[in-house]
Write a structure and sequence with these properties.
Elements (H helix, E strand, L loop, with lengths): L1 H4 L5 E2 L8 E6 L5 E6 L3 E9 L7 E10 L4 E6 L6 E5 L3 E5 L8 E5 L4 E7 L4 E6 L3 E5 L8 E4 L4 E7 L2 E6 L3 E6 L6 E6 L6 E6 L5 E6 L3 E6 L9 E4 L2 E2 L2 E2 L2 E6 L6 E5 L4 E5 L4 E5 L10 E3 L5 E6 L18 E6 L2 H4 L12
Antiparallel strand pairs: 1-30, 2-3, 3-4, 4-5, 6-7, 7-8, 8-9, 10-11, 11-12, 12-13, 14-15, 15-16, 16-17, 18-19, 19-20, 20-21, 22-23, 24-25, 25-26, 26-27, 28-29, 29-30
Amino acid sequence: MSANNNPNESHEVTQSLADSVSSLAFSPKANFLIATSWDNQVRCWEISKNGITKTALNTTLKASISHDHPVLCSAWKDDGTAVFSGGCDKQVKMWPLLSGGQPMTVAMHDGPIKDIAWIPEMNLLATGSWDKTVKYWDTRQANPVHTQQLPDRCYAMSVKHHLMVVGTADRNLIVFNLKNPQTEYKRIVSPLKYQTRCVAAFPDQQGFLVGSIEGRVGVHHLDNAQQSNNFSFKCHRQNDDFYSVNSLNFHPVHHTIASAGSDGAFNFWDKDSRQRLKAMKRCSQPIPCAAFNNDGSIYAYAVCYDWNKGAENHNPATAKNYIYLHLTQDDEVKGRPKPRTTGRR
């Protein structure tokens, strides 16, 4: 029932999707939303706020392109002119969306591409793959600028220049200082006991978040003097069941955190005061991915099967695929004062 899929009464993006959504990404310049999907498609919607009421949104499908195989990841160029998408066809396409140009292949790997990031400070595209490499690309050249070997398959990647964090299989977390991208800055084993699902670099580049399949988030600082401030917290759990943390996003203004998980819930957190700001009602299907728009006023999230229970538990006849837009409220995303009892300065 649609009511169960949308218990938070978010705005539904209009467009039927043939398969699960794998990534969401907002333009850094305007309210254009990209969604990639297991149906091999990359779609772009323009989102506008209704001038009469601030609580209404209009969504218009602007364009779409196809890959040869499922698409797993997406990113925007910093000027908002182009979109990058990669996945199981082992290539990244650059789509000059706003100019109406045709997509062109700008990166290749020997295995599926799991995550990508545009690094405007370097004018390079970083791509992480299951072939156990990260590659840096100047999109005007056919060959990578540099290929960095990883200890295992790339599962997640996050960049806040100069910091890049790559989570791989076997719970490795590889940290790079992009001032010297050809050398690992630090390698640690995840503070969480189970497989890494997502990572998010702090906006101030002083550390990162890591989410696991066991419904837990780790907050990790890079400075050895800050290690006492490292902690982890439980989320996306219900009774004795725990669910994967699929998405971690920092609010672009307040730098609070949104987490989304396989339990069908999304929550807002303040890592500095160590508080949950808001718990949203659970949807009837998992949330595999989510994203804030450029000013943090809209939080987009997908509601669809995320394959966490295998193909045998997927029923295409009953499982629908949705993208919803939540208009954030100040009390949900603004940080709160640190509790006085912590003794922290």
